[in-house]
Amino acid sequence: MIQAVHHIAIIASDYQLSKKFYTEVLGLEPIREVYRKERNSWKLDLALNGQYVIELFSFPDPPPRPSQPEARGLRHLAFAVKNLEQAIHSLEKKGVKADPIRTDENTGKRFSFFQDPDGLPLELYEQ
């Protein structure tokens, strides 16, 4: 029945700031951007390595949401990387602070968390 994850939707409090973060800091590729006048909302479709993965939205005055990885709801969004130190260094050069590297006790793989401009927890997971 279910074949794959189609996309992840994110609502930004500051659309331009989040657009810059996801495109310039994380390097996701814009596919299409539309303004939906009836909703006073921007929508930006983003791809990673040519695969559509994120819808970035703006809405007037969106309410805040708890964002710690242990909060109810979506826990976090994880991105696979080949070299964790290199990925963290790339983020830090762009002003994004990452948590200390940890090791997954079940897989032995290393990972680190960081946040988007709205505090959404994001993860780098070394493959």
TrEMBL record:
Gene3D superfamilies: 2,3-Dihydroxybiphenyl 1,2-Dioxygenase, domain 1 (3.10.180.10). Residues 99-108 have a biased composition (Basic and acidic residues). It comes from the Bacteria. The keyword Metal-binding applies. Residues 99-120 are annotated as: Disordered. Keywords: Metal-binding. InterPro entries: Fosfomycin_Res_Enzymes, Glyas_Bleomycin-R_OHBP_Dase, Glyas_Fos-R_dOase_dom, VOC_core, YwkD-like_dom. This is VOC family protein.
